[in-house]
Amino acid sequence: MSHFHDHSLPEPGHLRTRLAQAGLRATRQRLLILESLLLLPGHPTADDVHRRVASQEPSLSLGTVYKALDSFVAAGLTRRVASAEGSCRRYDADCSAHHHLFCTDTQEIIDFRDPELDTLIQGFFEARGLQNFQAHSFSLHITGSKLAGEKIIK
To answer: For position 4, what pLDDT does the model report?
Structure first.
């Protein structure tokens, strides 16, 4: 699943294909919402997506954006990511295996990948043998503060 890190405009045909592969009809509204989700930096909220889409389609309601985003989550096109307090839902168009660092000062959510950490977590749970539970995936949500001037290695 590709993610447009450079925030360039995705090809309309590519968006239609992604929706079709997820089993969703490629309506104009869904295309606009998916495009916005892919182009907005970071992990946008439904409000962020709605603001961007409303500039092109003023009649599109926030409720429609939520419904579309929920259908994208159900279809595996995006993931829901909670803020540290869990008060607002944010969305991540990158569905590859990764973790999130949440900065309580800036409210920024930063993607974090570490194959060594993943191996440690898998080994830990294999050794524990969770009763009546089969883990399929995992994602850590780590809360803290970015240090001024420090670059986070993703």
So the answer is: 35
